[in-house]
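Hi support team,

I submitted a single chain yesterday and got back a structure, but I'm not sure I'm reading the token output correctly. Could someone confirm the output below corresponds to the sequence I sent? I've pasted both exactly as they appear in my results page.

Thanks,
R.
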Amino acid sequence: MPSKFVHLHVHSHYSLLNALPQIPDLVAETKKYDMPALALTDNGNLYGAIEFYKKCKDKGIKPIIGIDAYVAVRTRNDKQAGVDNRRTRLILLAKNLAGYKNLLKLVTTSHLEGFYYKPRIDKELIHTHAEGLICILPSFSAQTSQFLKASDTKAAAELIEEYKTLYGAENVFLEITHHPEIEGHMELMEKIKDLAKGTSTPLVAAHDVYYLHPEDKKARDTLVSIQNGGDFSEKREWGDNNEDFSFTSPEQMQKYFKTMPEAIENTIKIAEMCNLDLELGKWVFPDYKVESGLSYNDELKRLVYEGIPKRGLEQTPEILTRIEYELNIIFTKGYAPYFLVVSDLLRFAHENGILTTIRGSVAGSMVTYLAGITNVNPLVYKLP
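Hi R., thanks for writing in. Yes, this is the structure output for that exact sequence:
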């Protein structure tokens, strides 16, 4: 019988210098406990998303792709020393393809524009890319702790309402975790419960997984010490040496939250809300419009044969044999739209005085020479 609990806050070794589990091991552990689904929420990246998706599908487990995002305290463009090295966190899970595409955009922009110590998103990006996502406010978010420790429940409530407006009230949850070994944590959880009640926000149980087994903790501490450049004798920021961020069993989680069964049930509810189907194993090219109305293959062939007189060549048997041999490979592999896109880019460059060059074995292609992509006649230089 499938487990009635799903881990929704899980880190793999792609959470660089912060977590240990390899993806196959996470999937195997999920299968061992007969969990119907599993989420991957690495720190600010999607490096493991496709591998995770494939491994889960192979084992009959529903993959839930997400991120444990870093949120800038101001904007992603602010990078002032001593101020913007602080950040909060937000768990975002893809409900569908639209949500997955928004995760891609968030991660990309956080690295290209928001990187300061960590890849950061900000309020503008959150507002722009909210469709198709489930939002979970993590229990270890600095912002949540700051609000509640200061008893500033009004600010916390306003933040929650803002997220509900963006994501939809049904897609916003408050995370609750069980860590009595960490000083002050259970008191903070009580405040989160009160906040959930006061804002009518559902709670969801999680464990913020960074390693598989409790005995793996020392290895993870070593990773974090390397990340922080600290001495191995130093204590970590989150507390004492008894803290546990292992892959807990469903039975453990049900025991931890026996007085809050709805927090466990909401893990299943969220898993059922997430239904992402990725079409893998096929090329995805830009939607290149062929003005002639021809197919991609016929349009490329037309361009190539028009290129013969443009290059001042004659249709000799050697040239025609070379062309047909290359085109046959290109058509068989489904690469014609790719060649058309690159040809169009190079055409624009040449018409606008932009210098272009090539590299590698493409210099040996007669098709690219005649399509205006390369400028070397491979027959003259006897290039294979």
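A quick pointer for reading it: The first strand starts at residue 37 and ends at 43. Let us know if anything else looks off.

Best,
Support desk
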